[in-house]
Amino acid sequence: MDVFVCAGCGAELTAPLVRVALPDHTYFGGWEQLHPPLMEPGTYAVDPLPTGPPWRVWDEVGEDLAARQGIYAPVYSVSFGARGRVVIAPGDSRGTAFIPEKCDGYCMGVDGRDGPNLACTACGSAVATRLDDCGLWQAVWLEPDAVRRAPTGPPAGPPPGWDDLEPASYAVAPVEPDGSWSRRWEASVTVALARLVAACEGRPVALPGPLADLIGDALAGYLPAGPPTLTLGLAGPGRPPLRPGPDVLLVPRHPFTGDPWRPPGGTAPVVPLDIGVWAYLAAPGETSPIPATGGLPEGVLRDDYPLPLHPRRSFLPHGRAFAHTLARLPAAREPWLRAYYDSHRGQYQGVSG
Q1: Strand order in the sheet with 270-273
Q2: Alpha carbons 145 and 155: distance in angstroms, whole number
Q3: SS3 of 118, please?
Q4: Which of these, 13, 26, 128, 273, has the minimum number of CB atoms within 10 Å of its CB?
Q5: Residue 131: closest CA among 42, 36, 47
Q6: Assign residue 153 a region: left if phi > 0, alpha if psi is -120 to 50, beta otherwise?
Q7: CA pair distance 314, 317, nearest whole angstrom
Q8: What is the pLDDT of residues 232-264, one digit of tens each?
């Protein structure tokens, strides 16, 4: 595990933490809604790309410089902030205090528009940015130049391999208790959809049954039109090989490294998906743990056990997540994908890098 300390004075700024993959939904929430913490207690993640201010508009930056910042298609503005910022749950921060003059926000909290708004209480150095305004996941972002990582205990071993994980334990239901779609699902599925568009190289694709049943109609407007010429299969640890093999595989991202699962000796392109969403699709579970005497016809649910939740509206892809992801794919510089991106820009005008 790691503790982060102030680079200036060495004071501890976090609880002991373990590194995990940066969540797909990090930058995508619901507008004018309060959100829970992004990170689970006791964890941290690192964003390798530039984030936060200062920002420069696309026309001033140009394609070559934008590509060096990790942006490969036009956006409203490009971040020239720090690379390698570390995100933690607010409850895991230690020894910091707000910088009052840097606590502006939209309406319900602080949004970090003025840069770091948390200072080390031991020496006063600006070390982090707290976010908790509406539409943002609650988080504390540690500035990479203001902190340093201090391992605790013996050196950590390698992260668990796929054979050591239990994907079902990560499953996230698609519907919240109030009947709304999970914000994690809305963002993560849309991020995977953008990667799918690139993997299919402009050809129509048929979604696998569970995904088609849940969100197929909503995603139709984002996938190329026409009869499907490619097949997408749900693949991953613990699942039997698909025969015949699909053209593209929808696979889980490793919860600690973020790397996609890959089949042994497989050659089909893979589209990584949040492991919580993937696990739900791969094994949605039983509607009741108690078998009915004599059995019930398929599709009939018992009424003496809480029924599964159903969304109160149809699934809507997160337009900003789609644009954000496409713009960060190197393939966006290919003529066909650039034309596709430009044709959809009207759906997400004003998106920043």
Answers
A1: 205-206, 230-234, 248-252, 270-273
A2: 23
A3: strand
A4: 26
A5: 36
A6: left
A7: 10
A8: 999 999 888 877 889 999 999 999 999 999 998
